[in-house]
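User: Run a structure prediction on this.
Assistant: Running it now.
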Amino acid sequence: MVAAIITILSRFIFLDARCSMLDTRYWMLDAGFWSLDARCWFLVSGCLILDTGCWISPSMKRKTWKNNHVSRITHHA
């Protein structure tokens, strides 16, 4: 009788261990999704940086073009 109770309890403990293993797997998967999410955020921020880079560079080109144009006019004068 005692042996039967011990085997039943050990089976429940084994099942509990399996459930906790599955739980950690789900947590690992969740962490994997979080890392993918972080990569997506990083890509989005990279695109935003590139986008702001594109916004910065034409204005810089305009400034340098204006400066060159003004310097050419003053040189000719």
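The mean pLDDT is 66.
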